[in-house]
Amino acid sequence: GAVVSQHPSRVICKSGTSVKIECRSLDFQATTMFWYRQFPKQSLMLMATSNEGSKATYEQGVEKDKFLINHASLTLSTLTVTSAHPEDSSFYICSARKFPLGQGGETQYFGPGTRLLVL
Amino acid sequence: RKEVEQDPGPFNVPEGATVAFNCTYSNSASQSFFWYRQDCRKEPKLLMSVYSSGNEDGRFTAQLNRASQYISLLIRDSKLSDSATYLCAVNADSSYKLIFGSGTRLLVRP
């Protein structure tokens, strides 16, 4: 299977600071990556679709000026949480779309997630 | 109405039991369907894709009912290691973005 990494795996920051999370596809090129957020005991909620070389597409209700996404290369997308607040504390997971599809028909490979805690 | 809905559970079953989960979706144009497994504080892992004709992988069987807009997952001979949250996911359009259900928690007891 394809491998996707995320860095950092865990971050604690003070309210008002910005945090950058990296998502890398290690052994394949990904023109499209996705960013999800998961609050405790809830499901993954898609935040945005990150497209290499173009602007990200944000889901309804997600502030694009607060969650900055940059997809500068075929293997790297970054999510920056600007002016983080305690309510931004969550589990942030990225996924990368691989083409052609995986053997199991999967369309996305997930990173291990980044746990953000804003104090 | 949520796009993808699941019973949150938990389903508490003894080892060896058979358990079934359902997941309903609202968009009739949905094209691809998946079951993921998520362990506590980890990322989701693909368990199996769901094909129109139904498919089986060992103890796991997935089925799709387009007319009623639901997918199902059957786990036979439950193992302790099957304890996890099972998420269904639906890909509604050509963008390949996945919409996840809230997950069904399974607890398999000795």
Give structural notes.
The complex is a heterodimer of chains A (about 120) and B (about 110). Chain A has strands at about 5, 10-15, 20-25, 30-40, 45-50, 55-60, 65-75, 75-80, 90-95, 110, 115-119. Chain A is built from no helices and 11 strands. Chain A starts with a strand and ends with a strand. In chain A, strands 2, 4, 5, 6, 9, 10 and 11 form a 7-stranded mixed sheet that branches. In chain A, strands 1-3-8-7 form a 4-stranded antiparallel sheet, with no helix packed on it. In chain A, a hairpin with a 5-residue loop joins strand 5 and strand 6. Chain A is globular and about 40 Å long. In chain B, a hairpin with a 2-residue loop joins strand 6 and strand 7 (about 60-65). Chain B is globular. Chain B starts with a strand and ends with a strand. The interface between A and B is medium-sized, with 24 and 22 residues.
Features:
heterodimer, A: 119 residues, mainly beta, seven-stranded mixed sheet, 11 strands, B: 110 residues, six-stranded mixed sheet, 0% helix
How much β-strand is present in the residues of chain A? Answer: over 45%
Instruction: Indicate the radius of gyration of chain B in whole angstroms.
Output: 13 Å
Give the termini separation of chain A: 37 Å
Order of helices and strands of chain A: EEEEEEEEEEE
Summarize the main sheet of chain B.
Answer: 6 strands, mixed
In terms of structural class, how would the helical and strand content of chain B be classed? mainly beta
Radius of gyration of chain A: 14 Å
As a percent range, the share of helical residues of chain A equals under 10%
Q: Please count the helical segments of chain A.
A: 0
Greatest interface: A-B, 24 and 22 residues
